[in-house]
């Protein structure tokens, strides 16, 4: 049975930056208030749809792996904010890449979407259904936010990241995973009035709101991420002491710190970029993986733990043994179209 190893990685962060001071121009908040509670200083606001962010990230990951688009036989796109429901966003990525026949599917498990997509892609490879898969996590949460809700709007941002995983006979790549859900408390983190349960005769966007019970989310998130990591480690027959790097979902710094302490992992082994991007939901892990490689935190042969949680309340973790390469085999000239607006100008229609 083949293994599924990561051979390419790429990210796409939109250029418009919204700082905490920008938020304070229309919210009763401040840089100190936000940073002390979340560890966040700024976030990105996208001027394009999420499927375009995903396309750029995927193109960069494919180039990094030294592959051509038609080498890919599967595209799995994890997102909570798809541009379209039918057709799915993965088919947009396939078309833009110029790929002729790859299976294309979207997956929604909120902030766990990338992790769940990675686990599913690895299973498809191990069962000889596919050989080379692009796994994407991307969001345009700026569209769905209630920007006047201070408890929510300061937490989230836009972006996308992707990895290529390939079949290999070497015992590397996605070694194990564990996925779960605390469905009994699914209402503690919910985007309301968003979906087919909503009255379509009403003005949809103006009525989108968020339910966000911070204390319950914190408790369940830390429990789920730690439990999943421990179970995934047991399935990989690996002690926590053998983990070189933890790349967690970047929900906020308090949750990341709590998970590291409960796992007894020092923070110098934990990848953190929430200060610059805030919570980009499904995009946080692939973007953090890219930056962990770029910054030299992930080295050849590193054992990587990847825990996450999301609305639902979904939770999970994967254990990945990195291969022997931490530099791209090639690059692409694919870029986002230019942005001529500031972040505040981009969200103005939503205010």
From TrEMBL:
The keyword Acyltransferase applies. This is Beta-ketoacyl-[acyl-carrier-protein] synthase III. It catalyses: malonyl-[ACP] + acetyl-CoA + H(+) = 3-oxobutanoyl-[ACP] + CO2 + CoA. PANTHER family: 3-OXOACYL-[ACYL-CARRIER-PROTEIN] SYNTHASE, BETA-KETOACYL-[ACYL-CARRIER-PROTEIN] SYNTHASE III 2. Its EC number is 2.3.1.180. Residues 105-183 form the Beta-ketoacyl-[acyl-carrier-protein] synthase III N-terminal domain. One of its GO terms (molecular function) is beta-ketoacyl-acyl-carrier-protein synthase III activity. Catalyzes the condensation reaction of fatty acid synthesis by the addition to an acyl acceptor of two carbons from malonyl-ACP. Catalyzes the first condensation reaction which initiates fatty acid synthesis and may therefore play a role in governing the total rate of fatty acid production. Possesses both acetoacetyl-ACP synthase and acetyl transacylase activities. Its substrate specificity determines the biosynthesis of branched-chain and/or straight-chain of fatty acids. Residues 233-322 form the Beta-ketoacyl-[acyl-carrier-protein] synthase III C-terminal domain.
